[in-house]
């Protein structure tokens, strides 16, 4: 086997020339969360409960369309893909029944990704356990295996599901995430991680439900890994590794008192049951629960509401035909009754809570539990099994370990789990912006600082002003990076999810075409990433079917950087006109190749940008693309010390330290988006060495890059592009001069 395209060297990624690699990636694609046949996004109720008879072939997109999507992402400067798939896609028909057609299709998509030179890692995605419980991930039969009945989730509020909501258009924004603290998720995740300890009666096919669920999940992922291995041309060449299960949640493990909402529970929205109330309503009892909304300063209580299932249960009836999937349930595990009642947590005859602290300690030993202990025991036990299963197929696989979101990572440094071929995968969202769907330029909160006990009171965590907000986001990400080094050891860190909502302020941008708030938020997030000293990111999200009406077609979310209803930011191919009679026409457009803009046709190109022809009656924006299309180091000959892009001034700066002079065949390379750095109009200043701007050709696309050959020691580079006024595309400007004038003044390609 030859040298790997990417390998880990301590806490950085390296290429075969020993250059540091920075991953600039994207999650592909949100479409993979729901079936293709039948097509069931989260607002469709038809055939929703017929979840065994589905197919994900065609997700995230067809083979025919894959070239279009991969070309677009490559042109936008992305070199990495977090490839979303679900357990359901592999094993939807029943335990041990695998969809080989979907697996074969996935391998073909990955082969096409290989043609575009992406680094891909596989993401076994889940959100709040399953589509049937309001999210994505696990097959529906896993709920039946646990004794749950998805048809009863609506009336009991065991899970809030947009597909079964009376009017899906009115499904409250971001309420899906509260399912983590409702009955189904609390039960399924507790059983998945810790069923042996907390539900010893839950025996199915001779094993505890914990081993049954984990075993099937790992076996499904292992089968996909096996087929990728057997394909012979995907491992190393395109698939570089595997991430652990997405956004693991502890369920009820470590909850001290299930009669109250835990004080550490950050999110309350809509009805907010205690775990015991969720058990009662899940069993058909009526409960009065507090109701909450989310405002500018976080959750606040709005009142109380009676949740009355009128006797309907979230559990399968006692006479349910349990033979459908071929399993054998132990006789001590009774259908028709809450599993937690069967384990003595509460008495269903009197509706009395018997053990409010049942989940606060290991029942058999009395060992106290909290989230940190959960992460270092139950989570790690599963992670090791998953890791070993993947490595059993592919010993050189990189494993991306994703602990619970926003929690302290496991303490692996110096232990047997301090694996040199491991990456720490972290998720971060600006919660205030995500939940309010508004970019607040006045204040934000240092959430990580609050969670880690940095402040005497939450009021001290408030940051005032947009500059302070941007710095706060950066400092939070930098804290997470430093925390990773302290706990996980010297490993690369990737932010495998980070992003912004596009439907801000009741979708105002979709009416006006003004994406200034989205641009500011996206720029702030990228500024934070650049200052985090991490090894890269995969932005959330690319969704091929996104539209203004339904967003990402999943639970009202709208985070995709691409939408069918928005314009794409102009590149060279959109300058000028294809009408030969137009003053903006250039001969280069009439060839079959990508159009070029040079001195001969520059003025015409600038006066004929496609945005200028858009009717004001049908405003379309560029979806804040100027903020995510930004320069970035690709390969660094040496150690990357810092890099940042100043969007307002269109200036990119980078510093590095090299032990030796750059080899001729392995220069430092920087991606330069043509929108900010049009051909022959970049001002470059370097500390030393020589450089050139050229194009890296992949298939039929050309990606602009700067290559820099420098000496050893501390080196820095600054690249000035085309400065524009906010929201202005047709007439880019410097301070008071036009883009054309900048070039005429000679501000192009100088040192």
Automatic annotation (TrEMBL):
Coiled coil: none
Glycoside hydrolase family domain location: 65-129
Annotated Glycoside hydrolase family 5 C-terminal domain residues: 630-719
MF-aspect GO terms: steryl-beta-glucosidase activity
Stretches with biased composition (Polar residues): 574-589
Any Pfam family matching the protein: Cellulase
Family matches, as Gene3D superfamilies: Glycosidases, Golgi alpha-mannosidase II
Renumbered residue ranges of the record's region Disordered: 572-601
GO biological process: ergosteryl 3-beta-D-glucoside catabolic process; polysaccharide catabolic process
Keywords, alphabetical: Glycosidase, Hydrolase
Listed InterPro entries: GH (IPR017853), GH5_C (IPR041036), Glyco_hydro_5 (IPR001547), Glyco_hydro_5_CS (IPR018087), Glyco_hydro_b (IPR013780), Glycosphingolipid_Hydrolases (IPR052066)
Family membership: Belongs to the glycosyl hydrolase 5 (cellulase A) family.
PANTHER family: ERGOSTERYL-BETA-GLUCOSIDASE, PTHR31308
Protein name as catalogued: Glycosyl hydrolase
Naturally occurring in which organism (per UniProt): Penicillium canariense
């Amino acid at each position: 086997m030859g040298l790997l395209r990417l390998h880990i060297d301590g806490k950085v990624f390296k290429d075969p020339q020993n250059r540091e690699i920075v991953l600039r990636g994207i999650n592909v694609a949100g479409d993979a969360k729901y079936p293709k046949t039948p097509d069931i996004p989260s607002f469709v109720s038809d055939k929703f409960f017929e979840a065994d008879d589905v197919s994900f072939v065609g997700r995230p997109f067809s083979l025919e369309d894959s070239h279009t999507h991969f070309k677009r992402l490559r042109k936008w400067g992305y070199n990495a893909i977090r490839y979303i798939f679900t357990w359901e896609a592999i094993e939807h028909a029943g335990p041990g029944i695998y969809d080989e057609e979907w697996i074969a299709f996935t391998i073909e998509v990955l082969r096409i990704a290989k043609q575009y030179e992406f680094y891909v890692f596989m993401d076994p995605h889940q959100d709040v356990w399953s589509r049937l419980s309001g999210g994505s991930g696990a097959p529906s039969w896993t709920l039946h295996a646990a004794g749950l009945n998805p048809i009863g989730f609506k009336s009991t509020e065991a899970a809030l599901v947009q597909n079964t909501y009376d009017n899906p258009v009115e499904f409250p924004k971001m309420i899906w995430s509260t399912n983590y603290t409702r009955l189904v998720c609390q039960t399924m995740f507790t059983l998945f991680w810790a069923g042996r300890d907390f539900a010893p009666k839950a025996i199915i096919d001779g094993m505890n439900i914990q081993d049954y669920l984990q075993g099937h999940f790992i076996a499904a992922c292992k089968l996909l890994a096996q087929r990728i291995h057997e394909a012979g041309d995907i491992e190393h060449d395109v698939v570089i590794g595997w991430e652990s299960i997405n956004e693991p949640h502890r369920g009820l493990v470590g909850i001290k008192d299930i009669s109250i909402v835990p004080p550490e529970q950050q999110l309350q929205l809509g009805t907010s049951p205690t775990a015991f109330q969720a058990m009662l309503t899940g069993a058909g009892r009526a409960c009065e629960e507090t109701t909450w909304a989310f405002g500018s300063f976080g959750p606040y209580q709005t009142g109380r509401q009676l949740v009355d299932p009128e006797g309907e249960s979230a559990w399968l009836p006692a006479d349910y035909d349990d033979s459908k999937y071929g399993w054998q349930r132990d006789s001590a595990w009774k259908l028709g009754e809450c599993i937690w009642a069967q384990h003595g947590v509460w008495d269903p005859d009197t509706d009395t809570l018997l053990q409010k602290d049942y989940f606060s300690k290991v029942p058999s030993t009395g060992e106290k539990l909290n989230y940190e202990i959960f992460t270092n025991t139950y989570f790690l036990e599963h992670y090791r099994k998953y890791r070993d299963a993947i490595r059993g197929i592919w010993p050189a696989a990189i494993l991306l370990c994703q602990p619970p979101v926003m929690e302290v990572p496991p303490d692996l440094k110096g232990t047997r789990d301090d694996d040199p071929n491991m990456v720490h995968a972290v998720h971060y969202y600006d919660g205030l912006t995500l939940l309010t769907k508004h970019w607040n330029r006045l204040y934000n909160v240092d959430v990580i600082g609050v969670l880690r006990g940095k402040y005497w009171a939450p009021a001290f965590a408030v940051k005032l002003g947009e500059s302070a907000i941007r710095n706060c986001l950066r400092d939070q990400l930098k804290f997470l990076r430093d925390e990773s080094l302290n706990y996980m050891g010297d490993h690369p860190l990737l932010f495998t999810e980070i992003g912004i909502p596009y439907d801000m302020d009741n979708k105002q941008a979709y009416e006006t075409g003004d994406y200034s708030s989205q641009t500011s938020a996206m720029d702030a997030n990228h500024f934070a990433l650049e200052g985090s000293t991490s090894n890269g990111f995969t932005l959330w999200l690319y969704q091929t079917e996104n539209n203004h009406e339904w967003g990402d077609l999943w639970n009202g979310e709208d985070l995709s950087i691409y939408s069918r209803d928005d314009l794409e930011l102009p590149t060279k191919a959109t300058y000028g006109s294809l009408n030969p009679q137009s003053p903006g026409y250039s001969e280069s457009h009439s060839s079959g190749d990508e159009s070029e803009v040079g001195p001969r046709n520059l003025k015409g190109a600038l006066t004929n940008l496609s945005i200028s022809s858009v009717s004001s009656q049908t405003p379309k924006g560029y979806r804040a693309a100027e903020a995510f299309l930004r320069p970035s180091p690709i390969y660094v000959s040496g150690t990357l010390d810092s890099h940042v892009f100043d969007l307002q001034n269109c200036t990119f700066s980078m510093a590095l330290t090299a032990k030796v002079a750059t080899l001729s065949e392995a220069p430092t390379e920087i991606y330069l988006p043509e929108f900010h750095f049009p051909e022959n109009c970049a001002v470059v200043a370097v500390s030393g060495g020589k450089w050139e701007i050229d194009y890296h050709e992949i298939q039929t696309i050309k990606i602009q890059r700067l290559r820099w050959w420098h000496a050893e020691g501390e080196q820095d580079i600054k690249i000035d592009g085309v400065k524009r006024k906010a929201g202005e595309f047709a007439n880019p400007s410097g301070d008071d001069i036009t883009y054309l004038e900048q070039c005429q003044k000679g501000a192009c390609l100088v040192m």
